[in-house]
């Protein structure tokens, strides 16, 4: 990268490719730590397979985490519904007394 006047910067082709790859990885949901873990893999392997395999591993981990969070939220929702039903029952019983 070279700084030019008036705040402009000139990026070489490799830097532009890295910036484009970072943007693409952000679009599919990787955070900066995850991007940092995979970015160089795309540039040491011309096929990009190593980078793609690492991204796939990260995406599988994200999916497992999401599934776990969904299960936790589903259980929480069920508990809240049960508590609502209990409170409604207690109110109904108190009103009938």
Can you describe this structure in just a few lines?
The chain is mainly alpha-helical. The protein contains three helices and two strands.
How would you describe the overall organization of this protein?
With 97 residues, the protein is mainly alpha-helical. Helices cover 78% and strands 4% of the residues. The chain contains three helices and two strands. It has helices at residues 13-27, 32-44, 49-96; strands at 2-3, 9-10. The protein has a two-stranded antiparallel ribbon. The protein is elongated. It starts with a strand and ends with a helix.
Indicate the overall shape.
elongated
Give the radius of gyration.
Answer: 25 Å
Care to count the β-strands? 2
What does the largest sheet look like?
A: 2 strands, antiparallel
Percent range for helical residues? over 70%
Largest sheet strand order: 1-2
Structural class: mainly alpha
Percent of residues in beta strands?
Answer: under 5%
